[in-house]
Amino acid sequence: MNKRESILQALSELQQEDLNPKGGNVWAYVYDSGLPEAEKVAKEAHNMFMNHNGLDFTVFPSLLRLENNIVAEIAELFSDDPASIAGTFTSGGTESIILAVKAARDYASEHNPTITTPEIILPTTAHAAFHKAAHYLGINTVIIPVNNTTFKVDSNEMEKAITPNTIMLIGSSVNYSHGVSDPIPELSLLAEKYGIWLHVDACIGGFLLAYYKKLGHPVIDFDFNLPGVSSLSVDLHKYAFTPKGASVILYRDKQLRKYQYYTCTNWSGYPVVNTTIQSTKAGGPLAACWATLKYIGDDGYKKLAETIWQAKQEITQYFMMLDDLYILGEPEASLLAIGSDTIDIFQLADEMKKSGWYIQVQPGDSITQPSIHLTITPVNRIDDFFQGLNKGINQVKSHPRESLKNDVISLLKDNDVPSEMLPTLLHAAGVKADGSLPSEMASINELLHLLPHEVTSEAFLYITNQLFTPTKSFTKGVE
Ligand SMILES: Cc1ncc(COP(=O)(O)O)c(C=O)c1O
User: Fold this and answer.
1) Cα(203) to centroid of ligand 1, in Å?
2) Which of 49, 273, 408, 433 lies 20 to 30 Å from 242, alpha-carbon distance?
3) 250, 290, 234: which is closest to 84 by C-alpha?
4) Taking the domain 44-293, which CATH number applies?
């Protein structure tokens, strides 16, 4: 075997440890259009641009043209006046969100210099990326609980939380955990009334909702046609089925987008003009995204959206017939949260994994009930999945696992776990000393549900710090 072959073989062997992201068995994280030709053209486009550097768009003007074209096409989905919309191509939803929060912060500091401790107001269902943005950018978060039946925020509660320090309101269309939209038209009115920036997180739902609308399916108003919306994030590496590393952050106009940019001419090297967080930026994802958008095209996206719409109807009917599992809220796009009052859904996820299906656990906490998250894509083999689920439910009912609940409750002091007890608990849940996780995750997910989030954050820091340990012993045949 030559060097090239042995390297590729080693990589392929490594992948055997993973779930196959293709073929519809993984109901989260991956978005497979089921169109191999679209993937092929994306790979070719990626390879053509993998050495191009978006750091300097004067040296690689092709990247500037590709980006401007993508933003123009996406803006058309979210505004009746797309020519006035400005935007930027980014590496993903989190980067789009961090940039929007930075823009709102810098806008506020110029227009409202009296604000020294900026705050953003967000529902509990807003994506973790907003917490991360606030953490990175030195901004306080004000978190508003959502209704525990609809999983939508009440705009009156958002209004009550507004203070002179509020720089941004956030709503999702749709949120990740329950797949429902916040009342964006009402949030838009609030944004106008108080003159506050409103960001709509349409990272996961936006593209699909725009196509549902084109197809005539009912969709709430959530875009720039509402006058209070200042910015909107939409990921293309989700329901536009482009390779990963593709999102767009849109602004009502260039005047708002300006606050997202960063420039530095105050050092000894080349002038830095960064439109995004990255400086050196691979051209591959941008070219692959452009190629996918062109290849699938408007008609292709309509077909994919209709397939997902139909699948959602079918899955909804199925859960209505089940005794043990039910859908939480009324999902609007393609994401479902599934709850149970009768069976252990942590164990169900493990049982499904044993038979080759990945369903994602949302552990919840003392307020939010645990649920299973399902991301519907065009390739999910729904009948097979239902069969797998029925088998899993029977297995959980006939062989229930032992819960850690009583152990945890006996350890809790004032709703907290003494820090010295954490390693013992993690060990009881199956975490090994080197941080590696057990194949069955039910006990860990149960701990996540039972313990306060400060404690679980600490546990994750510990586990992750252990897992990322440099290692020389890799795989046979590759030096
Ligand atoms: C609503 C929402 N916002 C933001 C994100 C973050 O996107 P990314 O994982 O691309 O950073 C996600 C990811 O699923 C999401 O669902």
Assistant:
1) 6
2) 273
3) 250
4) 3.40.640.10
Domain with CATH 3.40.640.10 in the chain: 44-293
Whole-angstrom Cα Rg for the chain = 23
Q: How many angstroms does the Cα of residue 93 sit away from the middle of ligand 1? A: 5
Nearest atom in ligand 1 to 97's CA: 4
Ligand 1 atom with the smallest distance to the CA of 204 is 16
Distance of CA 185 to the CA centre of its chain: 23
Tokens of 422: 């954490």
| Ligand 1 pocket at CB < 6 A | 92-94, 97, 127, 129, 172, 175-176, 201, 203-204, 235, 247
Residues 27 and 357 sit within 8 Å (Cβ to Cβ):
yes
